[in-house]
Amino acid sequence: MVDKSAKRNVRASSSGRATLDDIAAKLGISSITVSRAFRNPGKVAEELRERIIKVADELGYVRNRAASTLASARSMNIAVIIPSLSNAVFVDILNGIDKILRPRGYQMLLGVSHYSSEEEDALVRAYLAFDPDGIILPSLNYREATRHLLEKTGVPVVHLMELSDQPHVHCVGFSQEAAGKTMTQHLLAKGYKRIAFVASQLDSRTLARGRGYRDALVEAGLYDQKRELMVPDPSSIALGGRLLQRLLQQAPDTDAAFFCNDDLAQGALFECARQQISVPAQLAIAGFNDLSASASTVPSLTTIATPRFDIGVQGANMLLSLIEHQKVNRSTIDLGFELKPRESA
Amino acid sequence: MVDKSAKRNVRASSSGRATLDDIAAKLGISSITVSRAFRNPGKVAEELRERIIKVADELGYVRNRAASTLASARSMNIAVIIPSLSNAVFVDILNGIDKILRPRGYQMLLGVSHYSSEEEDALVRAYLAFDPDGIILPSLNYREATRHLLEKTGVPVVHLMELSDQPHVHCVGFSQEAAGKTMTQHLLAKGYKRIAFVASQLDSRTLARGRGYRDALVEAGLYDQKRELMVPDPSSIALGGRLLQRLLQQAPDTDAAFFCNDDLAQGALFECARQQISVPAQLAIAGFNDLSASASTVPSLTTIATPRFDIGVQGANMLLSLIEHQKVNRSTIDLGFELKPRESA
DNA sequence: CCAAACAATGTTAGCGCTGTCATTATGCTT
DNA sequence: AAGCATAATGACAGCGCTAACATTGTTTGG
Predict the structure, then answer these.
(1) What GO annotations for molecular function exist for this entry (chains A, B) (predicted)?
(2) Measured between CA atoms, how close is B297 to chain A, in angstroms?
(3) Residue A205, SS3?
(4) N or C: at which end does chain B have fewer Cβ atoms within 10 angstroms?
(5) Which chain A residue is nearest to residue B77, measuring alpha carbons?
(6) Chain A window 248-307: which residues touch B at a Cβ cutoff of 8 Å?
């Protein structure tokens, strides 16, 4: 006769943490009642609930999400995958997302892909393992394997930043292309004729802005390929300075430079200060995104303000609607953008 | 007689995702073998493993981490709680942490406390529910409830950024106070006599830098309280400009201003450019952290370089040692800092 | 005053996976 | 040839929790 209870503790109970059963045993009640005391307080008698909470605190009880997820088939996790944390754009989006998800009891799981589609793929896989109730992704284009996996598992997905015209794709953003075009047209309206476009990182959003730029210049009959400077390196303020130098070698008569984001543009402003190029008299400079610093630079930076926080908020709301099987009015929400004319152009 | 199998599917199997059992059934083998094929490939015959992987791909199988965590009492999760994502300092630390954890199969769970100890407390609680194998925290001081919880659960904890002399506290960082003192002494050595300290956010690290500043000036017999400007607002470039204005009202004869971080200092540089105050001739400016932009500003910014990435790397390594019950040589690692004298002072 | 509704708690089973301990087949040593 | 190690697979139980249903006791409406 082997004593069953002897076999009990062969396996490490998860680091000896207190469980619902521990609390229940101490109070001589059943564990389901303890569970209810936390999840459904109204269903447990006031007085008993207080005693449960007291014992729970004494024991340092923390609920085990893995067990809860497994039992309820609801993880309350939302996976969010973004390309970079060094880019304030995505941080703003995250804050928007978090503002909606946290109060509703969802836990955001954050993945950073470093602008690599391989990593993106790996992250989707890794976070699907957390059994998320939904996923938020930062772009529209994924590798076939990723799309296949997402379809198979059937998890609701919302895409941010860009717009899609496909029927079953849910997205919140604005037209990057239109924004690029708007800025270029603004520069044209200001009388600039030899307008350059300088870009780095070259993700799909950057490329879309470039298309908008090209469009506007072609329409105006002023497009010149030598004024396009695009490099794959990650954006930074220092890179903005270097690219300005290269641009001025490559096309010295340029009278306005449209940088694909504010980081590069700020670096260019510094480089101009260093080289004593007066902005905008000798060279106009424009950026994209309206980061918080861009209103403070000298000269202040002409740019396009993008509704990043709102994209996060509305994206999260759309995802919650999908999760709770409510109807989603529109599968695409265009939040637009705003031209910010300032001193630099 | 109730048909047992009829009762089977009453509960939603987690969104109908494929399970190990599904794969096993399809191949006429047992699920434990499928599990081994993924976790312990050497233990399963080559040929069988290939068939398993093929079927898994077909079904879009993704392992269920909740189940795995529950069964193995090892979550492979590491909770990391930081005060802010808008601050490049913490992003650099995260990159360091991730570099170590990812290849070892750990999943980093990120929480942002917005510099609030209430939120910090709530986050510790929320992430303990993920049954983390370890926790990385950004400071040393926690509310009693948090400390109590961490002790009760016995999860290994590593603190970053600051140093502690307490025996059982594990931390990786540098002395914020010494760094503040070093910068102040550098300014003194450069001949500045009326040195101000401007700070925002006022977390424990900022305050420690302030103590270093005060120390140095008191020792030099040059301390003057009216040159200390400290506000609780979150740091930003715009705030740096405003604080410079206030400082110059409050103490117009100041000849050097030490800002508690580079964001503020950069804002001050812009404000000087705007007001045509020449830096460093009329006013010297110094920052802290050596953010990537700080070498590119005009004039370039004198600052203290902090080993952020390395703090992340070494912190993560220390935590892994604790988790795997290896001996940890030192419970405190001081990574130092480096003065970066540049044009602004 | 009784049936029906409700409030408070309990019983049972199972979510998907893995630790532990078999079991069987195969090779290898002396 | 006997004995033993090793390789490949399987059976079983249980991690901590919760959905579904069951069981009490108590209230309420007519």
Answers:
(1) DNA-binding transcription factor activity; transcription cis-regulatory region binding
(2) 6
(3) helix
(4) N
(5) A130
(6) 266-267, 270-271, 273-274, 292-293, 295-298
Give the list of residues 6+ apart from residue B172 with CB closer than 8 angstroms, or none. Answer: B158, B159, B160, B311, B314, B315, B318, B332, B333, B335
Q: Across chain B, where does the E strand assignment appear?
A: 77-82, 107-112, 134-137, 157-161, 171-173, 195-199, 228-230, 256-259, 284-286, 303-305, 332-334, 338-340
- Give the C-alpha separation, B135 to B137, whole Å: 6
pLDDT digits (tens, 9 = 90+) for A31-59: 999 999 999 999 999 999 999 999 999 99
Minimal Cα–Cα distance from B221 to chain A, Å? 36
- The owner of tokens 């914020």 is B176
For residue A178, give both structure tokens: 């239109």
Cβ–Cβ contacts within 10 Å for residue B166, how many? 10
Closest residue (Cα, C1') to D11: B30
Of B70, B153, B297, the CB nearest to A67: B70
Tokens of B138: 């950004």
Q: Which CATH superfamily does the domain covering A176-305 fall into?
A: Response regulator (3.40.50.2300)
Assess whether the region A16-63 and the region A75-174+309-335 belong to the same CATH fold: no
How confident is the model at residue A5, as a pLDDT? 35
User: Residue B207: is its pLDDT beyond 70?
Assistant: yes
The fold adopted by the segment(s) A75-174+309-335 is Rossmann fold (3.40.50)
Average confidence (pLDDT) over B24-41: 96
Residues of chain A with pLDDT under 50: 1-14
Q: What CA–CA distance (Å, rounded) separates A213 from A304?
A: 13
Nearest to B191 by CA among B118, B250, B264, B256: B256
Q: Which of A85, A87, A81 is nearest to A291 (CA)?
A: A87
pLDDT beyond 90 at B145: no
B142 token code pair: 């926690």
- Residue A15's pLDDT is 60
Domain ranges of chain A: 16-63, 75-174+309-335, 176-305
Sole residue written with tokens 């908020």: A313
Rounded Cα–Cα distance for residues B302 and B266 (Å): 11
CA A107 remoteness from chain centre: 15
Q: How confident is the model at residue B15, as a pLDDT?
A: 60
Specify the CATH number of the domain B16-63.
1.10.260.40
d(CA A70, CA A76): 11
The model's pLDDT over B221-265, given as tens digits with 9 standing for 90+, comes to 999 999 999 999 999 999 999 999 999 999 999 999 999 999 999
Contact: B65, A129; criterion CB under 8 Å: yes
Task: Compare B314 and A141 and report the one with higher pLDDT.
Answer: B314
Is A100 within 8 Å of A310 (Cβ atoms)?
A: no
Q: What is the pLDDT of residues B118-142, one digit of tens each?
A: 999 899 999 999 999 999 998 887 7
